[in-house]
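Hi team,

Filling in the usual template for the complex we talked about on Friday. All components are listed, including any nucleic acid strands or ligand strings, so the model treats them as one assembly.

SUBMITTER: L.P.
PURPOSE: interface mapping
COMPONENTS: two
RESIDUES: 485
SEQUENCES:
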Amino acid sequence: MAAKLKAMTGNEAMAEAMRQINPDVVAAYPITPATEVVQIFAGFVADGLVDTEFVAVESEHSAMSACIGAAVAGARAITSTASQGLALMYEMLYIAAGLRLPIILAEVNRSLSGPLNIHCDHSDTMGASYTGWIQLFSENAQEAYDGMFQAVRIAEHPDVLLPAMVTTDGFIISHGMEAMQVIGDAEVKKFIGTYTPKHRLLDTDDPRTVSPALLQDSFFEFKRVESEAMRKAKDVVVAVGQEFGKTFGRAYGLFEPYHLENAEVAIVVMGSTAGTAKVAIDELRAKGQKVGMLKLRCFRPFPYVELAGALKHLKVLGVMDRSDTFSSFGGPVFNEIRSALYDEPKKPVTLNTIYGLGGRDINVGDIKGFFENLLRVAGSGKTDGLVSYLGVRE
Amino acid sequence: MASLKELSKRQELLSPGHRACVGCGAALAIRQVLLAAQKVPVVASCGVPGDLHLHLSLFGLADPLVPQCLRELRGHGLRDGGGLSGLEADR
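RESULT (copied from the run log):
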């Protein structure tokens, strides 16, 4: 295997993955902090390093529209965006999923306005978590790079045929340089294979209607099948992650436990915060505290059975959300994790903290402080409320 | 330019089964457009729901003789553009 150690930012890693995937069509519009992904890829197009038809569009709505058109025509299509760009794609995200088009989106997590903020939180991606897209989160650039190849396989699997977004955390990963393993082009090509859609719109010998009008007598059945595809995607995520591990030495699953098995108190996090949390956990473990973490990689499909199985033994669980639902009942990850645990006869006290909005730093001390609160609850059995806000001036 | 008399001898591409009302101007128009444009390989509807979209694409009744792609109001042009890019890439 011709893997090379290289220093790359998250955006460079995503763009490099796109070069190696060599998609048929890329349609995109720039937005901070995802701009570089397409900017770098446009360089690959200009230099003749890919065979891609690059469509420069006037908005993210148009970018996703063009990707949908390309995918309907039978092309492997990729785009990239962040924040307001993802929000502007919103209408098209549902259509991509509903038409069962395996489009890939390199998404860089950024807050949603207003007020204006260009830094990391998960508000954009969480807002799109009901659109029918598979969502894979990354702790670092390596996971984002690896995730892009897996996303192609997962999205194009005949049991799935759903679009997939691979996310990094804005600036923290997208602009942070790290050493990572870059796979050889030939190995990537072999792993992702070729995309052979079952139907192509432009097949005039077999004319079809794409996106027909479905009324009360048939629409429901189509959505039920879409739901079933997302359910089946869970096993495909696991299978592809394992195959990736066998092939390239880095296996992936639905989530990654960290000192979780014998922990009494643990946290759930997504994205780059997992790296910081591992340091906090190591330091607390060195002092004899039985603490651990579950890093949730696959938010869609939501692996509720597996999550409940991995978390039910805990005394206290703290779910860390990098976005707020503004429902007055905590963050989106908290709500789904707590629901997943509901049917367990023995389950942890499950609390929520919302942190890091608009790129607010989350450091080792912050996470250790949150753990200390959880340990206090484990000792006393008393809580100060379900939802807290970490690192905010109040 | 073909006359209506000449067009009437060509193969109808708008097949029976659409839900437009008898005498619907939109259905007549698209029928004539398709007759005139016999070599156009794909139909992309630019109508909003309630117009050609519902008339021509009702699931179970739509049986086009040419491929057609229909969608909501916004983004027609870009989806069609993307489709052409996909076709170019496919070549």
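MY TAKE: Residues 153 and 321 of chain A are 28 Å apart (CA to CA). The two ends of chain A are 53 Å apart (CA to CA).

Thanks, L.
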